[in-house]
Amino acid sequence: MDAPVKIGNGRQFHIFLGLCKVDNLRLCVEFKANKLAAEGAGEDQKQPIQKDDSLGEEEEDMDEEGPDTYCESTKGSSNRHAPVTSY
């Protein structure tokens, strides 16, 4: 029987991940962005991303080399990125 569980903080999520070691559990995630009262009301509207013209030619050439993320080993980490921790 599936019962929804609301996880509200990192400690609860860590405990949930510990349960995944024992049983097969399904996880459905919903993210909600917190807003400060001082921020404008129009911020939750989608806006197009504009290219930053201040990029140098070297940075633009790097984008053409391939995808930014990749994995060299079966453990899920590469020398280009920080180590990935799995629970």
Explain how this protein is built:
The protein is mainly alpha-helical and 87 residues long. It has a domain at 1-31. It has 2 helices and no strands. The protein has helices at residues 10-22, 57-64.
Task: Describe the structure concisely for a colleague.
With 87 residues, the protein is an all-alpha fold.
Order of helices and strands: HH
The percent range for helix content is: 10-25%
Biggest beta sheet summary:
none
- Rg from Cα: 20 Å
Number of helices: 2
The CA-CA distance between the termini, in Å, is 24 Å
Going by helix content, strand content and strand pairing, the class is mainly alpha
- Averaged pLDDT, please? 62
Low-pLDDT residue intervals, each spanning 5 or more residues: 56-81
Please state the overall shape, judged from the principal axes of the Cα atoms: elongated
Annotation, overall tally of beta strands? 0
Strand fraction equals under 5%
Key terms for this structure?
elongated; 2 helices; 87 residues; mainly alpha; 24% helix
Give a topology summary.
Elements: H1 10-22, H2 57-64
